[in-house]
Design goal:
By secondary structure, the chain is of the alpha+beta class. The chain has three helices and six strands.
């Protein structure tokens, strides 16, 4: 039987996941810039796959943007978008919530955490 967490426990979990996602997003952005992956993608040389920060990213590309998706061992789902027209990267992180039923019962929503950046 699944016991529903109280509101304060649910909010605490959401805030904890927010901090973890923030850390992942900024770590991935920093690694993409420092290792030159962002420059390659911006210049139209999109690697088919790459590993960083515990994620194994795989390319999913269309005409308007380059997209990479990955999941780490803790079931965080990361998606990297390169919007060609805007020349902007966006990293979207969706955490794996342990008790999604409790979140929904308290009329809260799972949160995606997004970080955007550009390179010159």
């Amino acid at each position: 039987m699944n016991v529903v967490k109280n509101y304060d426990e649910v909010v605490a979990e959401i805030l904890e996941k927010k901090e973890i996602c923030y850390s992942f997003n900024h770590g991935i952005a920093y690694t993409m810039i420092s290792e030159g992956i962002a420059s390659l993608i911006k210049n139209g040389i999109a690697p088919v796959e790459f590993r960083m920060d515990g994620f194994h990213f795989k390319l999913k590309q269309d005409d308007e943007m380059t997209v990479y998706q990955a999941r780490n061992e803790e079931n965080y789902v990361a998606t990297i978008y390169y919007k060609k027209d805007e020349k902007e990267f966006e990293i979207e992180m969706l955490p794996d919530y342990e008790d999604l039923d409790s979140i929904l019962k308290h009329r809260l929503e799972p949160q995606k955490h997004v970080t955007s950046f550009q390179i010159k």
